[in-house]
Amino acid sequence: MAAMGGGVTQGQPHPPQLQQQQQPPPQQPPQQPAVEALNAAVQQQLNLEHVKIRAISLFKAISRILEDFDAYARTNTTPKWQDILGQYSMVNLELFNIVDEIRKVSKAFVVHPKNVNAENSTILPVMLSSKLLPEMEIDDNSKKEQLLQGLQNLPVASQIEKLKARIDMIAAACESAEKVLSDTRKAYGFGTRQGPTITPTLDKAQAAKIQEQENLLRAAVNHGEGLRVSGDQRQITPDLPMHLVDVLHVGDGMQNVVDASGMYQRNTPLQSNTLTAQNALLQVR
């Protein structure tokens, strides 16, 4: 009976074997689509590798700061201000490097918002400020069409090479222009903290002489001092009439203005032409 039982047991399959026979063959997982990599030239232009390195460095710096603060909280100690300031300077430097790397790329790409909501409403002016004016956009498109007009029939590789050569030529021109500007700034002292080139100082005697002349000029303009002419410097012009000569000789004051028109000196004899004119007037009357 045991043998018969054993034979029967061997002839009947076990329930797990039945389940394995009933299960369909395993399906192969769906193949994921191949990820399209960016062009090497585009990656170089976007500075993605440098931005990635800077971002990882910033993440590590912030992680170290968080660990330090966690240790301060566990030990109930007060951190030193100098240490906190140094950590802040380190994070600020890493962030500045990232912004500097992104700034080189943001000049060549423009973001146009499509939907406005409460989240992007604060940065919407910044996004819109990078959009060109309509006339500038038309001019830019016409220049692009003019540039690509002779490259449309060429293969893609040749187009990339020609465009890269054109970009290198423009970059060389910009670099030479920047060099000329920097040389000009250095020559004239523009854009430097120390200011323009300092002229050589005057000696004490020359500076004192200039100061004396300035003081005399201020006194003459403001108070009329120093305008009187000394006696040895007076030169009476012989061509002047006698009454004007006498007035100028006697009335040399500080701010005295004498109108001597129509005045005659008492002892000055009348000229013959004056007497003749007066006699003619008396005869006519």
From TrEMBL:
Residues 23-32 have a biased composition (Pro residues). Signal peptide: none annotated. Residues 1-34 are annotated as: Disordered. InterPro entries: MED8_plant (IPR038795). PANTHER family: MEDIATOR OF RNA POLYMERASE II TRANSCRIPTION SUBUNIT 8. This is Mediator of RNA polymerase II transcription subunit 8. GO terms for cellular component: mediator complex.
